[in-house]
Specification:
CATH architecture: 3-Layer(aba) Sandwich
Number of helices: 7
Distance between the termini: 17 Å
Oligomer: single chain
Bound molecules: adenosine-5'-diphosphate
Largest sheet: 5 strands, parallel
Amino acid sequence: MSHNHNHPGFVVWMTGLSGAGKTTIALILEKELRQRNVKIERLDGDVVRQSLTRDLGFSKEDRDKNIERVAFVAKLLSRNGVGCICSFISPYQAVRDQVRAETTNFLEVFIDAPLEVVIDRDVKGMYKKAIAGEIPNFTGISDPFEAPSRPDIHIRTDLHTPDACAQQILAHLEQIGYIPAR
Ligand code: ADP
């Protein structure tokens, strides 16, 4: 008979600038955790904004509502043994603290790359537009980003490969017993 460890639900909350690497790392984590038979769901900003919160924009009020709804979903999942991989810019510390308070086994993961690096990457061509003034309320350019002052995990994506970044998060999850060791 195989081992039947009971692992808890959790929330890996990835916060960071657009283009910092949240979605890239989330996809690697999702694949790796499924291979280990960990029950997970991935909640991604771009995906959620086309479904659950498609009625919302990027004003402070709408950003808060966006995260409020996602937090509700993460609360239901995490308390029922599901690991949630969440990738949201989520620029406000108070809002991230609120998600922590509502959910089970919340980890604030700072997906960090300097602004000049994400501008240089410009994955979706949006920094160019934001700098030209064509996109209002763009985080890092014309809207604030409150970097976590004490994240549970701090990942520098300008210094490590995506795989190495995902491994840092996996190692932390193993170490605190949220997932089985390989
Ligand atoms: P976000 O979801 O934070 O907006 P994306 O994952 O969509 O960011 O884009 C990040 C971009 O940076 C991708 O093009 C990815 O290939 C690149 N990149 C370079 N190094 C890393 C790293 N260590 N982790 C994640 N992405 C990285």
